[in-house]
Amino acid sequence: MKMAWKEMQKNKAKFIILGSIIFLVSLLTFIISGLANGLSHDNAGLIKDLPDGHFYMTEDAEEMYNLSTINNGTQEDILMNQENSVALSIQMGFVNDQFDKQRSVAFVTSTDSDLFEQVSSGEIILDRSLEDEGIKVGDTLTHNQSNGTFLVKGFVNQKKYSHTPVAYISTEDYQDIYQTSDMQLIFIPGTENVQQFTGLQAFTNQEFLKTIPSYSAEQMSLNMIVWFLIVISGMLFAIFFYMMNVQKIGLYGILKAIGVKTSTLFQMMWTQMVVITSIALTVSIAGSQIFNSLAPNGMPFSLTIETTLQLSCVFLIIGFVGATLSGFQIKKVEALQAIQQGEM
Amino acid sequence: MDRFTMEKVRKTFTNGETKEDILKGINLSLMEGEVTALVGASGSGKSTLLTIAAGLQSATEGTIQFDGQNIATMKSDQIRKIRASKFGFVFQFAHLVPFLTVKEQLLLMLDIADSKQKKVDKKKEVDRILKLVGMEHRKDSYPTSLSGGEKQRVAIARAIIHKPKVLFADEPTASLDSKRSREVMALLRDITKTYHIATLLVTHDEEMLIFTDRVIKMLDGKILAESN
């Protein structure tokens, strides 16, 4: 351990360069991960905040919930027999504010349930992002497809669907706008075995998220970048320690000749890897949390400390693997070969 | 008293179907407090003999007795332990650890040898050995700031700090000028006598033989002559 530390002290520049690269790569990873998480909430906060359970839509909708229409009989039967189950519909639409400015919203209506906001006919509850845009409690909103008006009853936090603020309306108003009394979905909370209902297809929350247009594509691209950066950091370690080990082959040989264990040389390398990564990650975590608190309101960014710590563990593991792979050279070093070489 | 004996040691290198005998049945004993020099032309097998004796490569046949054990049949980790605690090494180049000071090089060797001394005693021992090799004034220097002769003195200090029983020196003066070479050889001889070490030395430089007790001349993998 002492040797590892002494080498780092003596070759500060070399290790600071590696640490800086790891810091930049990890900071970028944390920020992209924060964006992925933020966009995920922005895209499907409505669904992500629900407890684990199962969504049901009709089989003939072919996994497109907006084509699903669950008939009243089936709906009544399930709601009556399944505890806490709720039927709901989601439709993209518009409302006009007092200045007749059109606002995109995702209309959400549901049967009686604690999981979704309940309003009376003629009332509306909106995602708070619309409050930031100037709509206030007590304002009256209009809708072009129906002649009715909506009185703003309140706002809820982080309820978005397909990057659009959610607008909770009553089933009566929904029926009035979309001319249907059939709901699109049924949600049954609970992680027990999935229930089977004739003509309906079940989806877990995660599976349902994937049916949201753009959700999978968006998340896949961002997650791919995150993992790509993690792999790059692993390769950085492998390459850096490979270069260092190549330079030190003679030294390792001599140390082996005078009786140093191969495992001690590996420990030396691992210690350096852990010290550099830990320092780089600590600075990076601090940087990403500062970014988290300073990010503008309009930016969909959400980075929890748990996510950061999980990613940090992945960085450490990848760094360890990278360094270890490059360390196989140490194992191969022959003391004799080093002695016969010139001065290091 | 014999400290180290080699009997009928052979070393054969195989390259495809070709076999080459590098050592052809060597018998050799090393005595306490004696510097034994191996001399001979290049390719005579003297360096191979030294590295086999030091456990850095294995013999094809024969026995190598040290402290009542045949190290020729030991596993690599057992030999490593012996190298760390009972053997000392001085090479043609000092091969010091570039990021450790002179003092730290010696403390490292005590750690490698698994010395049970207290930290304060280790430091005292380091100071004592550095004084012995005339390097106490450079104890906080890094190898890059030392001359060739100084580096070799530190290498000798590192080789004896853990009180080895056998010291192997492979061309220790080859990279030094004649003045420094004589200083280093005199130091090796004095240390061998003072600490009752059995020293095996490979050298090309016949001028250095005045510092040895015994000279073994090798030719084509065999001992040609031995003189005191």
Level-1 CATH class name of chain B? Alpha Beta
Gross morphology of chain A: elongated
**Lateral arrangement of strands in the main beta sheet of chain B:** 6-7-8-3-9-10
- The CATH H-level superfamily of chain B is P-loop containing nucleotide triphosphate hydrolases
Give an overview of the whole structure:
The complex is a heterodimer of chains A (344) and B (228). By secondary structure, chain A is an alpha+beta fold. Chain A folds into two domains: 2-41 and 216-340, no CATH class; 47-211, no CATH class. Helix content of chain A is 53%, strand content 17%. Chain A is built from eleven helices and ten strands. In chain A, strands 1, 2, 3, 4, 5, 6, 7, 8, 9 and 10 form a ten-stranded mixed beta sheet that branches. In chain A, α7 (215-247) packs parallel to α10 and α9 (262-294) runs antiparallel to α10 (305-332). The two termini of chain A are 22 Å apart. Chain B has helices spanning 46-53, 76-85, 102-112, 119-132, 148-160, 178-194, and strands spanning 2-15, 18-31, 34-40, 61-66, 69-70, 87-90, 166-170, 198-202, 214-219, 222-227. By secondary structure, chain B is α/β, with parallel strands linked by helices. In chain B, α5 (148-160) packs parallel to α6 (178-194). Helix content of chain B is 32%, strand content 30%. The mean pLDDT of chain B is 90. Chain A binds chain B through residues 2-3, 6-7, 9-11, 250-251, 254-261, 335-336, 338-339, 342-344, and chain B through 51, 54, 56-57, 77, 80-81, 83-85, 87, 89, 91-95, 97-100, 104, 108-109, 111-113, 142, 158, 170, 175.
Question: Brief description of this entry?
Answer:
The complex is a heterodimer of chains A (344) and B (228). Chain A is an alpha+beta fold and 344 residues long. Chain A contains eleven helices and ten strands.
